[in-house]
Each structure stands twice: as structure tokens, then as C-alpha cells.
Request: fold
Amino acid sequence: MFLNKYSSLTLSGWIWVLLLVLMGISVQSRGLAAESQNPPEKKWFGEIRTGILAHDVDHLWSNLHLEGGVDFNLELVFFKPSLCLLSGIIRPNLGVTVNSRGYTSKLYAGFLWEWQTRQGLFLDLGLGVAIHDGELNTFVPGRKLLGRRVLFRIPVEVGYRLSIRCRVSLMFSHMSNGYTAEYNQGLDVLGFRFGYCW
Reply:
């Protein structure tokens, strides 16, 4: 059922999928080759994350499915400024998701708190804002009513570091206006991502 719901990609969507897979294979091989070297120097910008996410997933925080397609996600994580807190580190991020079927897409920014183990497992919790192109208060069949143009965004991500530079993860994010408007149907996404550190 899950595959049937999200398998109707356009040609451009399948091209995105192929490019993401090829990029993942390429950067993973480079990261494994560099694993024996010293860790990369942390600069202002240091990590790119990309993935494919199921759009408007049912039975999660929003608990209502109306929109379809999948989201293609690209995110930048900055190493500076940063703040150590509770055995983890807080960093700013900036990202975009584009829906394959013309439903709600968004541009977002915020902060991520990341905690890692020596075995390579990691957990990210975040808080930020998102600006989207979806519907606000006008009823359109098959579209969410999100209430405001700028919404709160809360991501949760768990994953494993494959090497010094490469990692894979499962990410969930929720965005809504927090009941600050008349309509607040919210939007949840869930999917897999690949990260590459410089």
C-alpha cells in the first residue's frame, strides 16, 4: 500500500531518484577511501544531506493524509556557529523540499541538536521555521489547509555514520502553525537521507 501510494512519479522525479543514487554511491566510495586520513577541518559549511521523503504521511503527528507524491530534499548543515549542550552539539541548517506532483513544497531553516555514539549511531532533534507554497485558508480538493505562510518545523532524525564523511539516516519532520491560526492541518514527511561531510 505504501509503495502504491507514492510510486506515481513523473519522469523528472525518476531522474532525481537516479541522480541521488549515483551521487550517494560516488561520495560514499570517496568517504571510505578517506577514512584512514585525519578528520576534515570544520569550516563554516561542512555537510550536505539529500534524500527522498514520503509526503503527507498518515497516522503520524498530523494524523491526516490529503496530498500525494514524494519530496526531494536537499539540506545544508553549518559547523559554525555551534554550541555544545547535553553531550551534543547545536548547529544551524538550511534546506528545501520539492514535491514531485506539485503539492506543498517548502524552504526551511533552523537549528539541529546532534548526539553521537562512538559506534557511529547519531540522533538529531531540531526546531525551525518553514515557508511554503501550499494552501492557507481556501478549500481545494486534495490540499492541506496550513493556516499561515510561515510555519514551525520540527525534525527528528536517526542514522549511522558509514565513514568519516558519509552517513545514512531516517528522517521525520512535522510542520504546522501551532494552532495560531483558524486552520492547522499540519504536514508530516518521512524518508531516507544520505549525508556527506567535507
Summary: The two ends are 38 Å apart (CA to CA). Confidence is low (pLDDT under 50) at residues 1-9, 25-38.
